């Protein structure tokens, strides 16, 4: 009696498309953090006149150490200006990014609410969606809202 043999399966290797998709997702996550920070700094500056590390830590639910590390990266990338024991200021690039984030957030929230989603849920869901929505999809959301 013959014993059935197991065929050897080829090693699973990610396709070029999968690798590209994963790289895109990693870049988006880094961008998402920058966007959250510049948006929070802009909001704090508008409402309190300044943004401080302690305020950012409280608003974003992270530690002071995390805020300081992220601010160092954002300063290297040209989004913020930080001096020890002083408020945090957005550069022109930071203000532009914050404005883009606010605009995108507003469209996503309005779109979700147009579907009947309650305001609180729409705000919470928009926080995740706004960072990953493509320009094509965002334009479709806006077109739907302008009907």
| CATH classification, class level | Mainly Alpha
**Poorly predicted parts:** none
CATH homology superfamily: Winged helix-like DNA-binding domain superfamily/Winged helix DNA-binding domain
Q: What fraction of residues sit in β-strands?
A: under 5%
Helix content: 55-70%
Quick check: average pLDDT? Answer: 88
In terms of structural class, how would the helical and strand content be classed? mainly alpha
What is the β-strand count?
2
CATH architecture: Orthogonal Bundle
Count of individual domains = 1
Biggest beta sheet summary? 2 strands, antiparallel
* Rg, nearest Å: 21 Å
CATH fold annotation? Arc Repressor Mutant, subunit A
Q: SSE string, helix = H, strand = E?
A: HHHEEHHH
Outline type = globular
Question: How far apart are the first and last residues' alpha carbons, in Å?
Answer: 72 Å
Individual helix count:
6
Main sheet: strand order? 1-2
Could you explain how this protein is built, in words?
This protein is mainly alpha-helical. The protein is 69% helix and 4% strand. Strands 1-2 form a two-stranded antiparallel ribbon. The longest helix is centred in the first third of the chain and has 33 residues, at 16-48. The N and C termini lie far apart (72 Å). The model has no long low-confidence stretch (mean pLDDT 88).
